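Reviewer 2 asked us to include a model.

Predict the structure of this chain.
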Amino acid sequence: MISYLQKHSFCSAQISEPSNPRVNIIVVIPCFNEPDLISSLESLWKCSRPQCDVEVIVVINASKNSSPEIILQNEKSFEESNHWIENNSDDSLRIFLIKNNSLPEKHAGVGLARKIGMDEAVRRFANVNNKDGLIVCFDADSTCEKNYLVEIENHFKKFPHSPGCSIYFEHPVFRPETFAEEISGIPKVDPKINEGIIQYELFLRYYRQGLKFAGHPFSFHTIGSSMAVRADAYCKQGGMNKRKAGEDFYFLQKIFALGNFSEINSTCVIPSPRPSLRVPFGTGRAINDFIEKKEEFIQAYHPETFVDLKKFCERIPELAEIENFKDGFDPLPHSIKKFLLANDFEKNFREIKKNSSSAEMFLKRFYRWFDGFRVLKFVHFVRDQHTKNTNETGFNGFPEIQIAEAAKKLLVMKKNLIEKRDYFTFDLLDIYRQMDKAKT
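Predicted model (structure tokens):
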């Protein structure tokens, strides 16, 4: 861990207080222009305490070129949180604030903020020689169930070889018909925002279930507010990146590659459903775009994309047994053929074969190449082939379709839906949530 910090840390130690020898969970929260940080801190504070001690590191951040309004909000968050911490901190759960409103414009963003906090967590675990310490990622506009910390501790005890995990999440949404009724206890929610977040979460779960249907080994959610990693795995894979968005997706691809990645479905993170323009993509941006475009449905990748992907994944073990990739090329779907040719796979295949002493090693190396990022490139490739309208013989891509239609088609393909009646998007989301919880 010390070697990692010497090579890769963005800054020196930010917290002067010594680490508690019993600390085994450190929750890291990036906070940028966030007016409701206290709610997230209160949610963590109200959690049942695990057997180990817990620390929370909040990284209040902005670039040196941020507007005066953003800097003012960050200062307000810092002052309010400091005051709150004075009355809500003990040895079993200590909360620390890091403030930096002068980050370089080139790198300032959620990736760098997470990195600063996660590197600090590594440093604090290193101080007490705890390479298996758990670094948990959370967000400044999220809350969690009361058993959150206990279930994280229990999970990693149950799966001692797991380098990291995703944690179950649900955005706060309501059935559309409730807006026509006066129901006690339901807060006022913009129906458009409610429908937008239902469809966006459905899109996330649809894509994940599409990868599971295809049999890809990296079919996990990659949500920054809902993930955890062991300190030694974090260091081994080079730590968090500095991306301004998508940092969670790219980071977790490296952790997936270690194998034994796992899921926690016995607790729940509740991310915020509010619109936002703070990052180029993600929940807030998706909801904002849904409202601004005034569309009825979010578009999703065509389910046939996952059918072709499934045919490819099923044939990958056979590739380990052949010397010339062309021998296994003809039976592949047209979409896969065109993608592999466009990505110089024959050269990569030879390299994978050359460095694989067994079929097991071949599969491991293959999926390092055909990881979640390259799968996403394939999904976009087949979508874009349709929009180009090349009219070539054989394959012209798969068009995007409405998320509700895509979600129903995939359920039929997975034999999770037989009825032909119409479903509200909320009903479809509920089915997909239950599938994720049941790991089916």
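Residues 5 and 274 are 36 Å apart (CA to CA). The domain at 2-290 is CATH 3.90.550.10 (Spore Coat Polysaccharide Biosynthesis Protein SpsA; Chain A). We have added this to the supplementary material.
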